[in-house]
Structure formats: structure tokens, C-alpha cells
Amino acid sequence: MTTRIALLLTTVAVGAADAALLDTRYWEAGHLEAIRAGRLADDPAVTASLESLRREADDALRDGPYTVVDKAIVPPSGDKHDYLSFSRYWWPNPDTPDGLPYIRRDGEVNRKLLANGDRVRIGRMYDDFEALALAAYLINEQVYAPKAVETLRTWFLDPATRMNPNLNFAQGVPGKAAGRAPGIIDTRHFIRVIEGVALLESIGRIEPAEVMALRAWFDEFLTWLLESELGRKERAAANNHGFWFAAQAARIAVFVGKPDVAAELIEETLDRRMAEGFEADGSQPEELKRTQSLHYSLFSLSALTSLARLAEGSDISADVWSHVTPNGASVRAAMDFAAPFAAKPGEWTHPQIKRFKVSDRQSMLFYLAASRLDEPAYLDHLDLSDKRFQGRHLAPLMFSRPDSARQ
Prior knowledge:
Elements: H1 3-17, H2 29-36, H3 44-62, E1 84-86, E2 90-91, E3 103-104, H4 111-114, H5 119-138, H6 141-157, E4 169-172, H7 190-202, H8 208-227, H9 229-235, H10 240-255, H11 259-277, H12 285-288, H13 293-310, H14 331-338, H15 360-372, H16 377-384, H17 395-398
Parallel strand pairs: 1-4
Antiparallel strand pairs: 2-3
């Protein structure tokens, strides 16, 4: 038996022995447990979110499961099991007969190009699995858990439909590159997948052997992230891409039993990424260059706060929330710089070519930062903001408010 497999088996055995424990590292376990136990049944925000969750999970029962092999385009490798996507801001070149190479128009989404490959498909998988796993834990495990597990099997485990654990062809640009380092951001929501696995484990609705297989898949994927040329380039990125690389790779590392790798990524963030990406006043120069600079400022913060939440774990125990870099940068300063403008985007003085509206995913940043920094004003900004929740608002299920019980 190899050392790697022995480690995975040991990790799974420990997880099976502690099956009743909820070991989420981004979502607040104590808050989720309180909702499951009915202790927050009189909280209107939680009640409304549970109704939203039920609708989402019921829809997910009818959809999917999704697989990379369903795409019409074959990747350059000739293997449909390889993930394939195209970059969203690239358009045909008007100065060449064939439109190649494509040119970049930052902030302008080429939806026709984006629809090719697997990017839309993986997004649907994330949303469906998240809703199903949450609904299994919070509403009815017998109804929703089987479809949640089927979703995992189809995307990650079934030899006929599984994704290969690499992103060699993510966010390609016609005429320029078959795959690019920025494409690694496509899988940032593997964080949500791993959190959902923790929910299913805690209620005994996924077999230990399947968790072991998932850990093996993610272990291979982590190796690709850390050792491939594209992964090394993304890890070094100074903007939101570097933060999201660290957030997803660290969460995967904890999942596969490598907290030392997670600790290294967190240390890099404290020592380098925060100082490179943030100023003492909370501004993020790389994000302020973008044509949707308010969106990207908050997007980058979502990655950093996800990493800060992970760093609270006993096997890492680093305090990202209160860390101040030598140049004076901090999470609080960055939140104070950008968060108020969610409620008053018209007063944002930096480029923002589209009117800013808060998505459900972005609202999680406000909930988490408000709780961890004990700053209810962030939720006030959220409450006053224009929103694009589109009927899906799950943040109140995942994170407590500052005046609620915390994990």
C-alpha cells in the first residue's frame, strides 16, 4: 500500500468514526447545526432562506446530473473528460478575416463563447449540489441526499463521466492559447463542493468509500494545482486570481489531509498577497484597474475572507482577520473601503461600466465579515444594496449575524 493511499484511508477512517460531527471550514457549522435543530425557527431571514433553498433543491431534483463529457467540442487532448472552457471577455478580432486572435474587452461578456465547453455546466453542478446537500442536511435528507451523491459520482467518480483532475484547457482564447492560468478560477467553487460533502458525511448519507474516492480525486487535482506550469503561474498572481488560487487550494489541502500545504498558502497570503494586493486605505490597485472595479474589489475580498475562515481551523490557527501587513493593509480596511458602495454604487469613483448589484454569493462576504469583524454596518450596506439574488438567497443559512450565536 502506498503512503498516499494509506494516508487517505486513515483520513476516511477518522471521518467515519466521527460521522456525527459537522466539519465545514467555510460555512459555520454551529449555525447550520442550530438551524437543523430548529433553534432558529423564529428567525425570519433563516425562514425565508429555507424556503428559497427548498425551491432550489426541488429544481435540482429535476435537473442534471452534469458531466464534462456532454460538451460538443473535443479538447485539444482528444479526451472529453478534460475540462474545457473559454475566457469571458474575449471577442473576435475585427481586423482579421478569421477573427483570430481574439481580443480582450474587459467587462464585456461574450456569452456565445462562454456557452461553449464546460463552464456553464460546472456552474450548474455547483449550484445544484450546494442546494441538494444543504437541503439534505437542513430539510429532508432522504429526499435530497441521493441526488446530491449522484451529482458527485457523475462529475468526479464514474469512469464514464468523470472530469480528469486538471485544468489544462480552462479559459482558452481562440488564436492565443488552448488553456490559461486564469482558468483555474473556474474551480474556485470546489470549496462549496467540499463543504457539501462535509454535510453529507455528518448525516451518514455518503459512503466512506465514496469519500475516499473523492479525496483521491482532489489529491490528484491538488498535485496538478501545485506542480503544473499553469498552477504555478496562477499561484503567483497578484490580483484576485492569486487569492482565489490560495483559497481553493488550501481548502482542498485540508480535505485531503495536508494542512501543512494549507498553512503554507495562508502564510504566503499574510506575507505576500495581502501586501501586494491591498493598500493601507483598503484599496486594491489591481482591481481598481478593471472596468468593473467595485465588483472585483469585493470579489477578491470574497477569496481572502474564505481563506480567513479556513485559517480559523485548529489544524492551522492563523488569524487572517486581524492581520495587518507592514504596509498597513488589512481585511477590515479593505471591507471599509469597498463595502459601503454596495449601498451607493453611484458614488463609487472608480471604473464600473455596469451598475453594481449584489449577488447571493457576494452577500456571503458581507455576512461573514460582519460576523467575524463584529461590524453590523456591513449588513446595513447589504440591506440597502441593489440585489440580483434571482430567488436564491442562502447566505443566512451559512453564516450567523453579529448578534447571533457563533461557532
